[in-house]
Amino acid sequence: MSDSRLQILLHLSDGKFHAGTVLAKKLGMSRAAVWKHIQHLQADGLPIKASRGKGYCLDYPVCLLDEASIRQHLNQRSCEPQIRILWQTTSTNDQLKRTVDEKLRSGVVCIAEQQTAGRGTRGRQWLSPPGVNIYLSFYWQFERAASELSGLSLAVAIALAQALASRGQQEIMIKWPNDLHTAKGKLGGILIDMLAETNGPTRAIIGVGLNMGMPAEHAAVLDQAIDDLCWQQAALALDRNQLAAMIIDTLYECCEIYDAQGFLAYHKQWPRWDMLEGKAVTLQKGLTTIEGTASGIDETGALLLLTAQGKTSHASGDVSLRVKPV
User: Fold this and answer.
1) Percent over 70 (pLDDT), the chain
2) CB count, 10 Å around CB of 227?
3) pLDDT tier at 201 (50, 70, 90 boundaries)?
4) Residues 6+ apart with CB under 8 A from 150
5) CATH 2.30.30.30 fits domain 276-321
6) How far apart are CA 244 and CA 111, in angstroms?
C-alpha cells in the first residue's frame, strides 16, 4: 500500500467522518487525489462510506498491524522473531510456503491485513476482510517425524484457549481437531501444513485465524454461526497488535514444549476444553460416514467414538454435531 493511502486509512481508522478538504490539507494533496486513493482503498475491500457534506468514514474502526507495537508486547522468550507484515496476500500459510527454501529459522511469522484466498480445513474458504481479524502463520522446524505431529493442531488449540482464558475469554471450547468456539459460534481455527523430509526433521507452517471483530455483512454470508472477541474487548484489554503478540508467544512456547514432550504434554488438559464430549456426532471420512458418541481423545490426539461396533479411534475426519430429529 502506498504511503498516501496508508495515511488516509490511519485518519479514517477512528470510524468517524473526515471531510475530503480537511484530509487533503492535512496530507498535502488535492481533493481529487484523496478521492482517487479512497477508491483504491474501497477496491481493496475496505468499507469506506462517502457522504455529501460529511466526508468519508469507515463502517468500523480499524487497528492496523504495526511491527514495533507487536514487538513491544512480545515476551522476551520469543527470541526476536522475524515478522513479515503484508497488506494483502493469498494466504499467510501459502506465503511462507513460497519462501520456505530461504532456509527460514524457527519462529518466522507472516501476518496479513487481508487474505484473498484464505484457507480453512479441507479446502474451505476462510473469510478474511481487511484490517479487523488475525491472519497469522508461524514457521517451526521440529526434530520429530511427521507421524509424531498428529496431535499438533490440538496442542496449538489448547495453548491458544489457555492464553485467551487467562485474558478474560472464559467461554472458549475446542471442536476437534482444530477449531476454537464459544457458545455463540466459531471463534477461530488452525491450519497446519507439513513439509516433511525422509528420516529427517519436519518443517511445519502453523496458520491461525482468529475473529476479532468480524463485520456483520461478512458474517451474514457464512454457512455457520461465528463469534468474535470484539464484544469482550473490555475483559480482554487487547488491541490487534497485542493479540498478534500473544499468539506469537503462545505458538513459540507450544512448539518448544511439543518438540520436547510431544502431545502427552497436552493430553490431560483436553477434557477442560472438549466441546464434543458425550455428544452425538457424525464423522465424515471421505465417502464414509460414521455416527457415534464423542468420548474424548487418545494419547495421540485421535478422536474416540462410541459406535454400534464399539469404541473406535479416528486420526482425521470432519466432525459435526448430529441434529436430533424433531
Assistant:
1) 86
2) 22
3) confident
4) 263, 300, 301, 302, 315
5) no
6) 8
Q: How far is 204 from 315, CA to CA, in rounded Å?
A: 18
CATH 1.10.10.10 residue window(s) in the chain: 3-58
Assign 5 a pLDDT band (cuts: 50, 70, 90).
Answer: confident
Does 145 or 138 have the greater pLDDT score? 138
Mean pLDDT of the chain: 85
DSSP string, 193-228: EEEE-TTS-EEEEEEEEE-SS--HHHHTTSSS-B--
pLDDT tens, residue by residue, 241-285: 999 999 999 999 999 999 999 999 999 999 999 999 999 999 998
Q: Is 55 helix (H, G, I), strand (E, B) or coil?
A: strand
% of the chain surpassing 90 pLDDT: 45
Element (H, E) at 3: helix 3-12
Q: List where CATH 2.30.30.100 sits in the chain.
A: 276-321
* Ranges in the chain annotated CATH 3.30.930.10: 67-271
What is the distance between the alpha carbons of residues 24 and 34, in angstroms, rounded to a whole number?
6
Q: What is the distance of C-alpha 128 from the center of its chain?
A: 10
What CATH class has 3-58? mainly alpha
CA dist., res. 252 & res. 192, Å (int)? 15
What's the average model confidence in pLDDT over 62-69?
Answer: 86
CA distances from 101 to 60, 105, 200 (A): 39, 11, 16
- Distance separating alpha carbons of residues 40 and 244, to the nearest angstrom: 27
Cα separation, 61 vs 182, in Å, equals: 24
- Identify the CA nearest to 115 among candidates 84, 147, 93: 93
Look up residue 57 and give its amino acid.
Answer: C
Enter the CATH code of domain 67-271.
3.30.930.10
Which range among 182-191, 237-246, 301-310 shows the weakest confidence by mean pLDDT? 237-246
